[in-house]
Amino acid sequence: MSGDRVCVGAVAGAFGVRGEVRLKSFCAEAADIAGYGPLWTEEGRRSFEVTLTRAVKNGFAARLSGVATKEAADALRGTRLYVDRDALPDLPDDEFYHADLVGLRVLDTGGTDLGTVRGVQNHGATDLLEIAVPGHGDTVLLPFTRAAVPTVDIAGGRLIADPPDGLF
Q1: 2-53 per-position pLDDT tens digit
Q2: Confidence (pLDDT) at 2
Q3: Class level of CATH domain 5-87
Q4: Total Cβ atoms within 10 A of residue 46
């Protein structure tokens, strides 16, 4: 997959018997997933125009171009969908796309290397940065708040963390 694309959703399976899919949106405004233009599969071999037909539990029922049967919709279960980065809106200075955070080096306020951002999770309260710690098999979850992460330097490939005592 090209580095110029960002994952914005996933197909959760078929919805009904007429080729609709159950679509999970990872967008801040869930319905925006249909407005970004064609969505691509991870490897970039297929693209789909998306038409949302109605809201359903945990997502939307949607039509994807070229998908006309329940079997074709079922075959897409688990497919992650990507959009070209330039189709996404610019963000204010204090907001970031999760894809921009993954891979950043994490340094503490004294310059000590704490690890690398492996992923971003959200279990309801706030975003959590999943940090892969060098020399350990485990990861650490760091709250992505201004207090715990006062500096994010995307261009420099790093962020500065002031983690709670005992976290690392």
Answers
A1: 468 889 999 999 999 999 999 999 888 899 999 998 999 999 999 999 999 9
A2: 45
A3: mainly beta
A4: 17
Locate 74 and state its tokens: 């079922």
Q: Which sequence spans correspond to the domains of the chain?
A: 5-87, 98-161
Q: Supply the pTM of this predicted model.
A: 0.73
How far apart, in whole angstroms, are the C-alpha atoms of residue 143 and residue 52? 33
Task: Give the distance, in angstroms, between the CA of residue 64 and the centroid of all CA atoms in the same chain.
Answer: 20
Q: Are 160 and 142 within 8 A, CB to CB?
A: no
98-161 shares the fold of 5-87: no
CATH level 2 (architecture), domain 98-161: Roll (2.30)
Q: Which amino acid is at 90?
A: D
Task: Please tell me the predicted confidence (pLDDT) of residue 99.
Answer: 86
